[in-house]
């Protein structure tokens, strides 16, 4: 079986139910979701299974959910068969609430980086934000797709921020605070207070 089809040589690709230009906003959106998925895969190779089994389980589920998001964006039939539901959004919210309590207290903005896994998760986070912005553009242009995809991407970026902090914390690496940041996280900040 050949991997190349030559059907996209003139700048178009297949959606589920139509053809579209490769630079169409819908294609840009699900292509960006594919970028997120790839960086999540890279982050998974940088996480030690003995210390990050929970994150690896989360991220594997997220990779499948991102495929569902991409498939839903690609489905332009009159009667689309969407896969995404509210359940993954609710699961992300629960995990975010758990993960933010683990690292040391955070009061200021942080710079992306630290351990390799944390740096990669931050890259995935920023690409997720871009994918979310692209779904907003689709909504404004009247394109139809399940609104849960946009909500999922919004929660996912928060999850990836929390996961990056946990990756640093469990690796014994402090987050690098933005030196000119005011205290932006109100109500005692994010994370746990030091026991010292």
From TrEMBL:
Q: Name one GO biological process term.
A: cobalamin biosynthetic process
Q: What's the catalysed reaction?
A: 2 cob(II)yrinate a,c diamide + reduced [electron-transfer flavoprotein] + 2 ATP = 2 adenosylcob(III)yrinate a,c-diamide + 2 triphosphate + oxidized [electron-transfer flavoprotein] + 3 H(+); 2 cob(II)alamin + reduced [electron-transfer flavoprotein] + 2 ATP = 2 adenosylcob(III)alamin + 2 triphosphate + oxidized [electron-transfer flavoprotein] + 3 H(+)
One Pfam family this sequence matches = Cob_adeno_trans
Keyword ATP-binding present in the record's keywords: the answer is yes
Gene3D superfamilies from the UniProt entry: Cobalamin adenosyltransferase-like
Say which domain of life the source belongs to. Bacteria
Biochemical pathway: Cofactor biosynthesis; adenosylcobalamin biosynthesis; adenosylcobalamin from cob(II)yrinate a,c-diamide: step 2/7
Return the InterPro entries for the record: CblAdoTrfase-like, CblAdoTrfase-like_sf, PduO-typ
Q: What class of enzyme is it?
A: transferase
Quaternary arrangement and interactors, per the entry?
A: Homotrimer.
The family this protein is said to belong to:
Belongs to the Cob(I)alamin adenosyltransferase family.
Protein's name in the database: Corrinoid adenosyltransferase
Per the UniProt record, the source organism is Planococcus halotolerans
């Amino acid at each position: 079986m050949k991997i190349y089809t030559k059907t996209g040589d003139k700048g178009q690709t297949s959606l589920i139910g139509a053809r579209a230009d490769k630079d169409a906003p819908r294609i840009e959106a699900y292509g960006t979701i594919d970028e997120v998925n790839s960086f999540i895969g890279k982050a998974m190779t940088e996480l030690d299974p003995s210390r990050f089994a929970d994150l690896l389980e989360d991220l594997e589920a997220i990779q499948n959910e991102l495929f569902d998001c991409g498939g839903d964006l690609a489905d332009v039939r009159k009667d689309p068969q969407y896969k995404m539901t509210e359940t993954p959004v609710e699961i992300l919210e629960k995990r975010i609430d758990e993960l933010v309590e683990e690292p040391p207290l955070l009061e200021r903005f942080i710079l992306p980086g630290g351990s390799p896994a944390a740096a990669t998760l931050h890259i995935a986070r920023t690409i997720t934000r871009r994918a979310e912005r692209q779904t907003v553009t689709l909504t404004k242009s009247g394109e139809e797709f399940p609104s849960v995809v946009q909500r999922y991407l919004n929660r996912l970026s928060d999850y990836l921020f929390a996961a990056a902090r946990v990756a640093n914390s469990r690796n014994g690496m402090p987050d690098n605070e933005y030196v000119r940041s005011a205290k932006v996280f109100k109500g005692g900040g994010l994370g746990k207070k030091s026991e010292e």
